[in-house]
């Protein structure tokens, strides 16, 4: 099962919930949260780039006692810059101009486009053992991530709870009362884009409705600013996830679009 984040602050948990969280601090993305022994953790530092679009500045991966620090250009293992492909202690790191990939023998695959989009695939042996922005991986996609005892809370509260507290970090938590209103416009356009013939091989592999909802949120948030980040990031994510699920998306980008 795959957890991912992309584009306009979208997150999809291992269990399939999609939510938006605009925080720009360092967060627990997905970790083994058993008390006795934690096999891995993935932390991400989020920020806004010069165009005010959210990106991931760096990723910190711990596998058992082994630490990998990734930036778009560098891989640092236990404090030493390494050349890729790099293999040690059951962890393989590869990168090219477009993606950085990490494979860990314990059952984790991480793929980052060195900008906004990150996906983590996790072996089902970690069912019910994870915590972080990716949720608890218990197979139930009904927002049980956002329920604590009897109280339920919104995605911003939930995201803020995943912050890694660092003594000298100066980052503001997003305001929990500003949860994004859901958007009901642009459905036709988003459905048309995501069910086009280029994605014929994807419909049986993914739940397209989730991406339609995310696309609608993007279109509303863009407020008519038709930049490619606003329009294309969810469609790129759908295409990536389709490929990852074994599908073969066709060529959907055109000179006029994305």
Number of strands: 17
Identify the CATH class of the largest domain. Answer: Alpha Beta
Question: What's the order of the H and E elements?
Answer: EEEEEEEEEEEEEEEEEHHHH
Uncertain runs: none
Our estimate of the beta-strand percent is 25-35%
Strand order of the largest sheet: 3-2-1-14-13-12-11-10
Radius of gyration: 18 Å
Count of discrete alpha- or pi-helical segments spanning 4 or more residues: 4
Cα-to-Cα separation, first versus last residue = 28 Å
Biggest β-sheet description: 8 strands, antiparallel
Query: How would you describe the shape?
Result: globular
Indicate how many domains the architecture comprises: 2
Which fold name fills CATH's third level, the topology of the largest domain? Protein Transport Mog1p, Chain A
CATH architecture descriptor text of the largest domain? 3-Layer(aba) Sandwich
Computed structural class = alpha+beta
pLDDT averaged over residues: 89
Helix content estimate: 10-25%
Describe the fold and architecture.
18% of the residues lie in helices and 29% in strands. The chain has 258 residues and is α+β, with helices and mostly antiparallel strands. It has two domains: 2-165, Protein Transport Mog1p, Chain A (3-Layer(aba) Sandwich); 187-244. The strands form three sheets. Strands 3-2-1-14-13-12-11-10 form an eight-stranded antiparallel sheet, with helices on one face. Strands 9-8-7-6-5-4-15 form a seven-stranded antiparallel sheet, with no helix packed on it. Strand 16 and strand 17 form a beta hairpin. The protein is globular. The mean pLDDT is 89.
């Amino acid at each position: 099962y795959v957890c991912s984040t992309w584009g306009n602050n979208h997150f999809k948990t291992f269990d399939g919930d999609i939510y938006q969280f605009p925080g720009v601090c360092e967060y627990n993305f997905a970790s083994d949260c058993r008390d006795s022994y934690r096999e891995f953790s993935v932390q991400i530092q989020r920020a806004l780039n010069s165009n005010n679009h959210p990106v991931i500045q760096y990723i910190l991966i711990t596998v058992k006692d082994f630490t990998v620090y990734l930036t778009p250009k560098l891989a640092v293992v236990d404090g030493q810059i390494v050349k890729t492909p790099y293999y040690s202690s059951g962890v393989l790191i590869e990168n090219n101009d477009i993606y950085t990939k990490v494979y860990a023998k314990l059952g984790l695959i991480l793929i980052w486009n060195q900008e906004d989009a990150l996906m983590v695939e996790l072996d089902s042996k970690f069912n019910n053992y994870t915590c972080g922005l990716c949720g608890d991986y218990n197979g139930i996609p009904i927002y049980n991530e956002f329920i604590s005892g009897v109280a339920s809370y919104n995605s911003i509260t939930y995201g803020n709870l995943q912050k890694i507290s660092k003594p000298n970090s100066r980052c503001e938590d997003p305001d929990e009362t500003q949860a994004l209103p859901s958007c009901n416009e642009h459905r036709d356009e988003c459905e048309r884009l995501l069910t086009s013939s280029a994605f014929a091989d994807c419909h049986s592999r993914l739940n397209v409705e989730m991406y339609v909802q995310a696309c609608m949120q993007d279109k509303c948030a863009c407020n008519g600013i038709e930049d490619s980040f606003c329009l294309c990031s969810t469609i790129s994510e759908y295409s990536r996830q389709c490929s990852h699920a074994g599908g073969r998306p066709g060529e959907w980008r055109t000179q006029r679009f994305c």
